[in-house]
Specification:
- There is one protein chain.
- With 71 residues, this protein is mainly alpha-helical.
- The protein has helices spanning 6-22, 27-54.
- It has one domain.
- The chain starts with 5 loop residues before the first helix and ends in a 17-residue tail after the last helix.
């Protein structure tokens, strides 16, 4: 499954946490998935920092969740 937004990423990470506690996912796999998720989120932080420095309002599709964004 391709994760297309931050809400889906959070859900997947929480599911992985449950799997880890239940012993249905191996620790090295969970660590790598968590590491990759962190790198994805860090790229978003860089985009947001750059936009702030340049006075831009970025359109980051990965963060596009209309339910949580102010109107």
């Amino acid at each position: 499954m391709r994760i297309t937004n931050v809400v889906e990423l959070r859900s997947e990470l929480l599911d992985m946490f449950v799997e880890l506690r239940e012993g249905t996912i191996e620790l090295p796999i969970a660590q790598e998935l968590n590491n990759t998720a962190g790198k994805v989120l860090n790229t978003i932080k860089v985009e947001l920092a750059k936009a702030a420095l340049c006075g831009e309002k970025p359109k980051i599709l990965f963060l596009d969740n209309k339910k949580c964004l102010p109107k």
